[in-house]
Structure formats: C-alpha cells, structure tokens
Amino acid sequence: MKLDKKIVLFIAGILISIGCSWLFARKIEWSQLNVAFREAKYIYIMPTIIIIFISHYVRAVRWSTLIAPVKNVTVLNLFSATMIGFMANNVLPARIGEIIRAVIVAKKEKIKMTTSFATVVMERIFDVLTIIVFASLLFLFLPTETSPDNRRVSTINHVEASTEDFKTQDIKGKQERYPSDINDERQTDAPNIIKQLRKWSIIMAFFGIFAIISLFMLTLYPQKAGSAFEKLLFILPQHLRDKMVNLLHSFIAGLQILDNTKHLIWIGILSLIIWFLNAASVYVLCYSFNIELSFAGACLVTVCLALAVALPQAPGFIGVFHIATQKSLDIFDVGLSSAQSFAIILWALSVIPVTIAGFLFLWREGMSFGDVSHYDEKAPE
Q1: What is the Cα Rg of the chain in Å?
Q2: Distance (Å, whole) CA 244 – CA 262
Q3: What torsion, rounded to 10 degrees, do the Cα atoms 106, 120, 56, 348 define?
Q4: How far is CA 41 from CA 45, 206, 317, in A?
Q5: What is the Cα 53 distance to its own chain's centre?
Q6: What count of other Cβ atoms lies within 10 Å of the Cβ of residue 227?
Q7: Cβ(300)–Cβ(331) below 8 Å
Q8: In the chain, what is the straight-line distance between the N-terminal and C-terminal CA atoms, in Å?
Q9: Domain-located, residue 97
Q10: 3-class SS of residue 374
C-alpha cells in the first residue's frame, strides 16, 4: 500500500508539473524572451546566488540550535546534510531530500533516527508558522499602486504625452522589442487584489497568533496541550487523523529536546532571517530585469513560491516554480516577457548551483548518489 501511494504521488507530481509547464510555455514569445535575456543586467546574478547560499547556511545554524540539546553538531556538517537534501529534492521524486538529510545526520553523528527526524519535522513546522506570520505582516505594507515602469499600459500613456514623431518612434521601438508587454491585454487590477490580500492578512494574523500561542503551550505543557489538540482532530477522517496525530507527536518530541524557551525564540528569529533572505534574493534579482518591485512585493513573490513548491510536483519544482513566479509578478503588472525571463533565471539560480553544491558535499561525505537514493526506506513510520 505504501508503494502504491508513492507511485500515485509521483504520477500526480509529474502531471502537475507538466500542466504548469504548459501554462507557462504556451504564452512565451521566444523573440521577446531572447531580448529580455540579452538586456538583463547579469551583474546581479552573483549577489543573488550568494544570498541564496547564505539563506541555506542560516538553515544549518537553525538546525544546529534545534539539535544542540542532544548533541553539539558542527554547522558545517549540518550545512553539508542540508545541501545534499536540497540536491536530492531537485533530482529525486517525493521530496525525499528531507528524509535523506535526517538519515545522514543520524548516521554520522550517532543520533537516534527518531530524534533526527523530529528536528526536521520541527524545521518545517517553523517554516510554515513563519510564512503565516510573514504573509500576514507583508500584506499590510504592500503598496496599492504598482510602479509605472512595470505597467504595460502606462508606457503608451507616457508616450502619448510627447510629440507625435517621438510617440510613433518610441511605440514602434517598444513593439519591436517587447510587443508582448506593450500589447498584453491582461487586466490584473493590482490595487484591488492587494486590498483583498490585506483583508486576508487579518485572518492570517489570527492563525499566526494562535499558532505561536499553541507553540508555547506545547513547549510548557506538552501532555495537556497535546491531548487537547488530539481532541480537536475528531472532525478529520480516521486515516488523516492518524497522520496528524503522528505529526503532532513528532513535533512534541522535537520540542521536548529544547531545554528552554530561549531556544524557541532564537529559532523563531532564525526562521524570520531565512525567509527575509529568500525575499532579498528575489528583490536583488529584480534589478537584473529592471523590474521595480518593493521589498514587500518581493516578500509576496516568496510566499507564493513557498506555497507553490509545497504541492506534489516533479523533481526540481519544474513548471510549478515558473508559473507561481510569473503569476505573482503579474499582480504588480510586470510585463509577460519580463516576468517569464525572471522566473526562468530565478529557478535556475535556486536549483542549479544548489544541486552542484549538493553533489560536492556528497563527495565530501564519501557517499555515492546510489547510497542516499534509498535512504527514504529508513524513515520511521
């Protein structure tokens, strides 16, 4: 039955990636995409890669804080396992990189497998909580007006205010270079979308506050709080309830590893730094394509990507990553060719260097790809 479920999830992931890739590729105008790539300022590529790697390093620091009460593991060893895990997510199905990195640390550091997995579960739950807080805060600061330089229609309006000759020449030049951006008839109504997001931020803030209070309750009163949460799951189907209970127990076990609430607060701060850096990589890369996006806008793109990559999909987040980036930029009236070229480059910078680094760390650990590809079989039930 377990094998059947894996196959179903794998097929579903492939189909989702194929569908998203088709949605992304069907509107590509290759000549305009080529122009966007040619005119991009690649000086911002290296800073973007550096920020991405710093973000992953901070993840390793956070992991070391989580696992410190059990054993002092060097950040370098955890960074190595983290990069190998991300590499595995990029080339293997079902996001088994999360399992692989937990197994690597458990085997190398002589830690109980269940303890190592508990820390990984905690990491992901902290990520979810951080995204909720992140999203609820950023929606309040999103500007209701998009940048004129991003708007498809405003370019023509600006030209119409000039002389007739200049107007004709400028429109002709822009149509030759970016006709998909000038003639794109999509109506995003960005101000109204952002206003709706602000309304949702109130709901998300409520869930964020509830989640933070729950986190401290589970830390201070694990047995009582755990029993209370189990009772709240009665509305779920039995098979889903069992999974949620197992996840809850893993999380409580991980929380019990922490010896005080100071650790909890520090982990929360590190989680915010991680997602701040993720947004910073988006923000910096925008300069490559002359996309005028506020930092709050970059945060929104980051949140959309985080939600999108949580879906079942093919290894490497192909298709889903691209369409999520394009659609989130569309909120800010970014031209189609600019948004698509940005999505392709951001995906490449997020996946290719990390995959290469993962293989290098795999070599450093003296392991082969064949060794780690079967580590998912060692996951605790």
Answers
A1: 23
A2: 27
A3: 100
A4: 8, 41, 25
A5: 14
A6: 10
A7: yes
A8: 13
A9: yes
A10: coil
- Would you say residue 229 lies in a domain? yes
pLDDT, tens digit, for every residue of 241-264?
A: 777 777 777 777 766 666 667 788
**Pick from 126, 15, 45: which is nearest to 289 by CA?**
45
Parent domain of 264: 2-146+179-378
CB 362 within 8 A of CB 87: yes
**Which residues does the chain have with pLDDT short of 50?**
1-2, 151-180, 182-183, 185-187
Q: What would the pLDDT profile of 128-176 be if each residue is shown by its tens digit?
A: 888 888 777 776 666 655 555 554 433 333 333 344 444 444 444 444 4
pTM of the predicted structure, to 2 decimals: 0.80
Which letter does DSSP use for residue 41 in this model?
A: -
d(CA 10, CA 49): 29
Q: Are 103 and 365 in contact, with CB atoms under 8 Å apart?
A: no
Would you state the structure tokens that stand for residue 302, as one six-digit string?
A: 């980051």
**What does the alpha-carbon distance between residue 298 and residue 304 come to, in Å, rounded to a whole number?**
10
pLDDT at 32: 85
Asked whether residue 169 is assigned to any structural domain, the reply reads no
Amino acid at 323: I
Kindly state the tokens that stand for 79: 């960074």
Q: Count structural domains, the chain.
A: 1
Q: Tokens 């590893």 map to which residue?
A: 257
pLDDT value of position 156: 33
In a domain, 156, yes or no: no
Residues 6+ apart with CB under 8 A from 342: 285, 286, 288, 289, 291, 325, 329, 334
Left (φ > 0), alpha (ψ -120 to 50) or beta: where does 367 sit? beta
CA dist 82 and 366 (Å) reads 16
